[in-house]
Amino acid sequence: MKWDHGLFIKRLNPYVTKDVLESHFEKWGTVLFCDVKTECTSGFPRGLGYVCFCSEEEADVAEAAGPHKLGGMEAFVRRVVSPKTTDNTAYTPQRRTGMAYRLASSSWLDSE
Question: Is the pTM of this model over 0.70?
Answer without folding.
Answer: no
